[in-house]
Amino acid sequence: MSENRIAVAKTYKLYIGGAFPRSESGRSYPVVDAKGAFLANAAQGSRKDARDAVGAARKAFAGWSGATAYNRGQVLFRVAEVLEGRREQFIAEVAACEGVTVKKAQSLVDAAIDRWVWYAGWTDKVATVLGASNPVAGPYFSFSVPEPTGVVAVLAPQQSSLLGLISVVAPVIATGNTAVVVTSQDRPLPAVTLSEVLATSDLPGGVVNVLTGRTAEIAPWLASHADVNALDLTGAPESTRADLERAAAGTVKRVLRARPSEDFTREPDLARLRAFLEMKTVWHPIGV
Amino acid sequence: MAAPSTTPSLPPALADAVRDDASLRRFLHGLPGVDQVGVEQRAAGLGTRSIKKASKLWAIDTAIGMVDLTTLEGADTPGKVRSLAAKARRPDPDNPDVPKVAAVCVYPDMVETAVQELRGTGIDIASVATAFPSGRSSLKVKLEDTAYAVDAGATEIDMVIDRGAFLSGRYGQVFDEIVQVKHACGDAYLKVILETGELATYDNVRRASWLGLLAGGDFIKTSTGKVSPAATLPVTHVMLQAVRDWHTQTGELRGVKPAGGIRTTKDAIKYLVAVHEVAGPEWLTPTLFRFGASTLLNDLLMQRRTQLAGHYSGPDYVTVD
């Protein structure tokens, strides 16, 4: 029976504003495994999909950044719970996409889920660690608090399809930003599954928007988009990075440059949390 | 029934229609029924037309020039009206070549402020009147309301019809009210708000459109913006057909103003396509077609910037209100 069964060929869609629309362009492209065998079709996002995703992220920003840090932590932890439930699917996809052994894939998926939990824990701690009460010469109580930058366009790493993806997305939303993520071009399946996880956990629609497709095609539109506040260049093709930075400068975006051959299996630090935070300093008169 | 003041020489069929109450009713109920499925399908079909590049830029600029920039809030202040007037004069300060809007639309007590701000700019000052938005008051109050706005300097009056009277079939009463308000307007343009969201059927929209035209309204306007649904494409189609037919029968050009619920450039362009296809290209001018809107202008400006700059713009680059 099972040998005769016809396989269900999947054609995945984008994840924008909590819904799964097809690409506005109607395009899709085949995704193959490390050996070149067909895995599934993924939607090939266009500039208009990027525009819609930015709109959805902007709409979600007020609610997500306004939620208490405690609440954001709870939501992200819930996402980790659902990630755990999809563990087997992630392992299969990571093994196929990255061409690693199942054992290696298991350790990558475990690390990815742990990484998500690690960032979930930071939501209500980051303000105490990065914020400060500043000693000033005058009758003022001066304090600095970190605030989210806004809509962040994330170009996810091309090689590390799940661990790398989670390492760049989790810190962005943990601090209250909303994200438009362009997935790894050739290894998008774990990202698609992640979007299914996000849609079925408590994360409000639009906080994370996932675009699959050609990074080099979508990235310039995000870099120049006036309603995007920051840009993570981690997965940008080497040859396009300078142009993207230049385009981003047109609207004075915060740009996180790609680190050369970043190893995502290493323990993370606060750098990615800090990258998309802005410090607000308040002077409050005292002593009256 | 009072005689309409602006249409001295109606063709015999129409002159007969306004002779008395019974003939008005006979005329309005004798209008052909609207094919609901047909008009909705045609509206949806025309809405799919793709307008790109130079045509899109032209459409955006044309639409900006047709906007009645509106603020009709209980919380309106002179300061808010002044900032609205500043935006009407120069919608996008970074791009001085953006055309100014057609008019500013305010409550009667804000007309004076708007007049001061817009003197000499060529921008009209529209004021809602006649117990806006419900239209439920005595004729005396409605005429006073109109006179108040006109005396303060309003050049256009947006009146609401009494939907209660219309729906219970007292067409003569509605007709008389419009005629008298038109008389009270003097030189000011009169826009007749039908509030199509409360009229329930396209047949009623057609009847109300003809009623407004027969009574001398210079514009027929869909809605107050206070009732949902406000303007829709099919309803605007029916109204555009009415002004088109009016033109065919009398040679006069009357305008249409959809208001409420038009928020995006895409929507606005769909309306322009409808104007071109249903009424005709001569209606593509601010004297014959207007958008009653407040948020639409920002989206038009953002799209204009996107077209010219080659990258997407954002709400941070236009004024909040």
**Which structural class matches the secondary elements of chain A?**
alpha/beta
Structural class call of chain B reads alpha/beta
Radius of gyration of chain A: 20 Å
**Overall average residue pLDDT of chain A:** 96
Overall geometry of chain A comes to: globular
Tally of contiguous helical segments of chain A: 10
Unreliable stretches of chain B, pLDDT < 50, 5 or more residues?
none
- How much strand content do the residues of chain B show? 5-15%
Notes on the protein architecture:
The complex is a heterodimer of chains A (288) and B (321). A 5-stranded parallel beta sheet of chain A has the order 7-6-5-8-9, with helices on both faces. A 3-stranded antiparallel beta sheet of chain A has the order 3-4-10. In chain A, strands 1-2 form a two-stranded antiparallel ribbon. The model of chain A has no long low-confidence stretch (mean pLDDT 96). Chain A contains 10 helices and 10 strands. The longest helix of chain A is centred in the middle third of the chain and has 21 residues. With 288 residues, chain A is an alpha/beta fold. The termini of chain A are far apart. Chain B has an 8-stranded parallel beta sheet with strand order 7-6-5-4-3-2-1-8. Chain B contains 13 helices and 8 strands. The longest helix of chain B is centred in the last third of the chain and has 18 residues. Chain B is of the alpha/beta class and 321 residues long. The mean pLDDT of chain B is 94. In chain B, helix 7 runs parallel beside helix 9.
SSE layout and pairing:
The complex is a heterodimer of chains A (288) and B (321).
Chain A (H helix, E strand, L loop, with lengths): L27 E5 L5 E6 L3 H20 L2 H17 L1 H12 L3 H21 L3 H5 L1 E3 L5 E9 L2 E5 L7 H12 L3 E5 L6 H11 L8 E4 L3 H10 L5 E3 L8 H9 L4 E3 L14 H5 L1 E9 L3
Parallel strand pairs in A: 5-6, 5-8, 6-7, 8-9
Antiparallel strand pairs in A: 1-2, 3-4, 4-10
Helix pairs in contact in A: 1-8, 2-4, 3-4, 4-6, 8-9
Chain B lengths: L11 H6 L3 H10 L5 H12 L5 H13 L1 E4 L7 H12 L13 E4 L4 H8 L5 E6 L9 H14 L3 E5 L2 H5 L3 H15 L3 E5 L8 H13 L4 E3 L11 H18 L4 E3 L7 H15 L11 E3 L2 H14 L12
Parallel strand pairs in B: 1-2, 1-8, 2-3, 3-4, 4-5, 5-6, 6-7
Helix pairs in contact in B: 3-11, 4-12, 4-13, 5-6, 7-9, 10-11, 11-12
